[in-house]
Amino acid sequence: MKAVKIILAAVLLVGCMAAQHMQSVVQASPAFDKMKTLAGEWEGSALEGGKRIPARTIFRLVSDGSALMNRLGPDTPDEMITMFHMDGPELLATHYCSAHNQPRFRAVSTSDPNVVLFQFKDATNVAGPQVGRMDHVKFTMLDADHHIEEWSFLQNGKLDTGRFEFHRKR
Predict the structure, then answer these.
(1) Residue pair 113/141 in contact by the 8 Å Cβ criterion
(2) What does the alpha-carbon distance between residue 35 and residue 67 come to, in Å, rounded to a whole number?
(3) CB within 8 Å of 152: residues ≥ 6 apart
(4) Fold of 28-168
(5) Is a pLDDT exceeding 60 seen at residue 8?
(6) pTM of this structure
(7) Neighbouring residues of 153: CB distance < 8 A, sequence distance ≥ 6
(8) Residue 25 carries which DSSP code?
(9) For the CA atoms of the chain, what is the radius of gyration?
(10) Of the residues 52, 107, 128, 158, which has the maximum number of CB atoms within 10 A of its CB?
(11) What is the pLDDT of residues 111-149, one digit of tens each?
């Protein structure tokens, strides 16, 4: 009986070690590396209806650093989650929107190394072009403690962009 337990433990150990070596290989991405620098808590403002309103956002590395989770407007009824991750050579983002749909974005190259731009790829829960959805989002890193987010919402062919200005919470 003791020998069976030892053999079983050895098999489990070898299986766990093999599973570690079988993890997906994530390709290096300067854009994802730039997005990861946003990890932490941020506060700032957004322009809404012609006036500045307070805004908060939190970025957190999750899943062994393979994904970046963003909570825009944390702990509010309109809180939205965006998950950033690599898929082969592409940096993707899925935005869980308060419009009750989930647009997915793909990062596109820009000439500015401090800008990460995501363009619409596809979405779930979008029945047609009349249904509003996020179309693209641009992150501009001004320095280690300041960034701008510009979220563009498309509905009935009209694009509306909301601008958030954030500084790192100390």
Answers:
(1) no
(2) 10
(3) 134, 135, 136, 137, 159, 160, 161, 162
(4) Lipocalin (2.40.128)
(5) no
(6) 0.84
(7) 99, 132, 133, 134, 135, 159, 160, 161, 162
(8) P
(9) 20
(10) 107
(11) 999 999 999 999 999 988 778 999 999 999 999 999 999
Is residue 101 within 8 A of residue 125, CB to CB? The reply is yes
User: 9 in helix, strand or coil?
Assistant: helix
Number of Cβ atoms within 10 Å of the Cβ of 166: 23
Return the domain boundaries, the chain: 28-168
Sign of torsion over alpha carbons 127, 128, 131, 137 = positive
Which tens digit of pLDDT belongs to each residue from 55-109? Answer: 999 999 999 999 999 999 999 999 999 999 999 999 999 999 999 999 999 999 9
- Looking at the chain, list the stretches that DSSP marks H as alpha helix, in order from N- to C-terminal side: 2-21, 30-36
Pairing outcome for strands 40-48 and 158-168: antiparallel
- Spatial distance between the Cα atoms of 73 and 87, rounded to a whole number of angstroms: 27
Question: Residue 9: is its pLDDT beyond 60?
Answer: no
Phi and psi (nearest 5°) for 34? -65, -45
